[in-house]
Write a structure and sequence with these properties.
13 helices; six-stranded antiparallel beta sheet; 32% helix
Length: 534
Amino acid sequence: MSEELLINISPMESRVAVLDNGILGEIYIERHHKLGLVGNIYLGTVVRVLPGMQAAFVDIGQSRTAFLHVNDMQREPRPVAEDKSKAATNDKKDNSDNSAILETSTDGLAVTPPVVSAQSTEVVPVSKTLIQHRLHESQRILVQVTKDQLGSKGARLTTNISLPSRYLVYLPSSDHIGISQRIDGEEERTRLKTELSSLMQTVNLKGGLIARTAAERVPVNKLEEDIYYLLQLWRTICARRQEINHHQSSELIYQELSLPLRSIRDLVHADTEKVIIDNTQVYEQVRYFAKEFVPFIYDKIVHYTAEQSLFDVHRVEDDLRDALKRRVDLKSGGYLIIDQTEAMTTIDVNTGSFVGGRSLEDTVYKTNLEATHAIARQLRLRNLGGIIILDFIDMLEQQHKDDVLESLQAQLTQDYAKTKITQVSELGLVEMTRKRTRESLGQQLCEPCSTCQGRGFVKTAETVCFEIFREIMRCARTYNSPKKFTVVAHAAVIDLLLTSESDTVADLEYLLGRVITFDVENLYTQEQYDIVLD
């Protein structure tokens, strides 16, 4: 599979599109006035500690206080001299827990740093330490953002600082060496663990490391360069921390790379054939960065200078517009309906105009198989996360269900985000989760409709007419003095009152003994109306 990166720069925003065989697979957008926070490191101030939630709210200088859960805090150190036998048992257990966590790939647009510790310590599981015994109001702590603000929720924080480079992620509060799950070969995994362990001893580096997917078959000298880069970066962060004015409630200590440089660090791999950039200044910055950290891509970086927009040439703008629609058409004639709510995202598969050939079961099977490809692409393109319910068309044969599930899992292997899928239920539903670290495409580019307030529908003109009739009768009973009622409403409502409902209006005038007149207000929505008493 060939892959291209398109980097579009404008005065308002930076956009990076990932094309898989010429088709838009992912899109990253960063508004210059609203930069993402994920990966940033702050010296924050604890505003409130909530023992009932085992969490704290921390001021990091944003509009909303950020959220820190006790499970996202680094383990509490204590002297090794304390109970040697118990320490050995705990250490073994903790290393096992760390292994499960650190073996996860951190590829994607991520962030994180390392610590150098002179003292030998053992750790106590966070679950044994309550947050109210570890934090107090007005306390200053070093934290890193793991999730951007999503809707009304503040950013999510961790005290487990991590710094990514091209091949490695440095974890100062860990003592484990992990390998990305995407690196399959046992021999290569063993080689990386051995070489990283040796390099850490050579440079006297304390902390943990994760080998990213890009580290596969990378020579030891490149890994060593990454380690020195991360070590220097962490020392810079520590120095910055010491310089901070203690009277300030919060301060940005480290800011993640810009989107173009982050995309070169995290998205470029062996299958990337070309990186096309339409801005001269960013083109030079990316080339300099690539020469230092990703040299194999240096000669593949191209400066786009044509008059026509880079995204228009590759139909990215059209695909972006389609990605905001509920309906996604399949080539066979079937289609998907995608609905995103606060609690979950639902994707419904339909046969549409596809009639198949041999039998109904065969038609359903082929539609569901085709849908797995479209679903995997839409999850990446729209950056849908959290709980996702897939409503496939009901299949009778178990083999067909297994094939559809296997196809979906195969397609999701290309996804940078971590996913988990359940089996097909009796109702044909598949429940899955996808890790969410930033807003979805729809949340980033859109806002709730001002007319329907995000419901997706409005009251019919007929329903509003009946509401108006009831309101007029209510006003007539309450106020005896008005001689005339004037209804101010949307044009569609007034048209209905003067045509289909004209007899009802005449009966109401006769019943109340008052005149009813109508005014059109084009600024009103279909649900809005006023009744003026004259």
